């Protein structure tokens, strides 16, 4: 019995030391149940790994604290689900001015962010209006970490393509200044 216990202990150590934790490359993501009590009305699952990340801005007031970000994001969720009668918040993730990442519909659930791309991408929405001002380095760093996390978890393809929503739909999103910023990202592509 002692030899079996020792073997189990050794296997436990080997597994935890030698097998990399895929989440180690991931930033803290504020889970949906930490900012809202409202569940999705229905769920359509995505086929992963996904080839695209779509960048948006919310054109809402900015937020700089967790509390104010939760308030704005809950307002967006309510507008999408109650006002538009969508099944869920449209964005996969939202990034607040506080630098936090907030889970929307998440990695593997279809959002309602960019017609024609909802089934083959996640969306990252920057909370605020970035038509006339750039997003903070805190927000941009959070987006980079989220994309790297998606790759390490196998949710995004290694050669994932980042594009602004305006590249595939006639809209201003992600705003002129944020659009300029994303063009410097290694994953950004001019032609989807």
Q: Nutshell version of this structure?
A:
This protein has 192 residues and is of the alpha/beta class. It has four helices and six strands.
Task: Looking at this protein, list some descriptive labels.
192 residues; alpha/beta; six-stranded mixed β-sheet; 4 helices; globular
Summarize the topology.
Elements: H1 2-18, E1 29-30, E2 50-57, H2 66-83, E3 93-95, E4 101-103, E5 121-126, H3 137-152, E6 156-164, H4 176-182
Mind summarizing the main beta sheet?
Answer: 6 strands, mixed
What does the radius of gyration come to? 19 Å
Helix content: 25-40%
Q: Could you say which structural class the secondary elements and strand pairing correspond to?
A: alpha/beta
State which percent range the strand residues make up: 15-25%
N- to C-terminal separation?
A: 60 Å
Shape: globular
Q: Which stretches of 5+ consecutive residues score pLDDT under 50? A: 4-21
Quantity of strands, as a count: 6
What strand line-up does the widest sheet have? 1-4-3-5-2-6
N-to-C SSE string, H for helix and E for strand = HEEHEEEHEH
Question: Averaged pLDDT, please?
Answer: 90
SS field, number of helical segments: 4
């Amino acid at each position: 019995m002692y030899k079996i216990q020792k073997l189990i202990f050794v296997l436990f150590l080997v597994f935890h030391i030698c097998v990399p934790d895929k989440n180690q490359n991931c930033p803290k993501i504020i889970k949906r149940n930490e900012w809202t009590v409202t569940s999705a009305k229905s769920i359509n699952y995505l086929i992963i790994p996904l080839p695209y990340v779509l960048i948006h801005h919310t054109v809402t007031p900015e937020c700089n604290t967790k509390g104010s970000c939760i308030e704005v994001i809950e307002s967006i969720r309510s507008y999408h689900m109650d006002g538009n009668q969508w099944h869920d918040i449209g964005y996969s993730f939202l990034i607040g001015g506080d630098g936090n990442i907030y889970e929307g519909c998440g990695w593997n659930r279809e959002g309602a962010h960019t017609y024609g791309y909802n089934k083959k991408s996640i969306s990252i929405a920057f909370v605020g209006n970035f038509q006339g001002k750039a997003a903070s380095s805190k927000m941009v760093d959070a987006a980079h970490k989220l994309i790297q996390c998606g790759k390490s978890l196998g949710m995004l393809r290694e050669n994932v393509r980042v594009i602004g929503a305006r590249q595939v739909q006639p809209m201003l999103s992600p705003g002129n200044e944020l659009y300029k910023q994303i063009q410097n990202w290694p994953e950004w592509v001019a032609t989807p």
